[in-house]
Amino acid sequence: MSLTGAAKLAGIMGWPVSQAFSPRLHGYWLNEMGIDGALVPLPVKPEDFSIVLRGLMKASFKGCSVTIPHKEAAFAICHRSDLAARAAGAANLLIFHDDGSIEGRNTDATGLAESLREALGADGVRGKTVVLLGAGGAARAAVVALHMLGAAEIRILNRTRGRADQIANALSGQVSPKLSVTEDWAASAKDAALVVHTTSAGMKGAPSLDLDLARLPKTATVCDIVYNPLETPLLARARALGLKTVDGLGMLMHQGVPAFEAFFGVAPIVTAGLRQHLEEGLRGR
User: Fold this and answer.
1) Domains located in the chain, CATH noted
2) Catalytic residue among 45, 58, 71, 178, which?
3) Per-residue pLDDT tens over the stretch 63-99
4) Can you give the pTM of this predicted structure?
5) Among 112, 236, 250, 264, fewest CB within 10 Å belongs to which?
6) Who contacts 198 (Cβ-Cβ below 8 Å, separation ≥6)?
């Protein structure tokens, strides 16, 4: 549908922003609900971030989704934030309020939690041991997601041990699972119920992690937050071994729900039709 002068507008900022899938995601819901609104892709250089953000507020935008490389700057500029944003030190959703304040959220945590609930059931992670691959902002959000799901222990494995130590030290007092740092994949994997991969390895054009997935129990699940390609080399190897897999598209869809509701005032629903729409878009890339 075409926009009118009364349209509700929100943005998505990144540099570059052409890879972002949020406009297609939000566009599906806007069309489905007949809402007069749009999520506008905004290619913004890092040095222009705060200037553009203030401009969006002056232009009566409802808020802005944020992608690489602006998530840390977004967190720094907000007046209040949720646990996931504080844990990650990064925000991917900024909500503009009438009093001029900016609320920051990190919806990666809720998106991953909902995706895992959908795939494994409400108690699929509760009381279980998880191996977390990576130690960046996405890994921190994953710790919060696994806390929400009731995991008992999270073993953090990262190429640089110091960064993994930073996560464990920073979040141990904020989340309920036991956090430990490991460099021994084989020992960590042998009794793990779930592996969550949070790095860019295996993303389109990037090499995959070289891990012996046969070390995992046959009942384990492997989750990759990368969604392009939909089946990463890591997930393909897991599937070949008969392990359950969870791709990154579920996280993308579910993390968009709170953003859409904040921008357009209606809570959307994640459906099979939405997944099909996004898969079609991925095949076209």
Assistant:
1) 8-105+252-283 (3.40.50.10860), 109-247 (3.40.50.720)
2) 71
3) 999 998 899 999 999 999 998 899 888 899 999 999 9
4) 0.92
5) 236
6) 132, 133, 134, 136, 138, 139, 142, 225
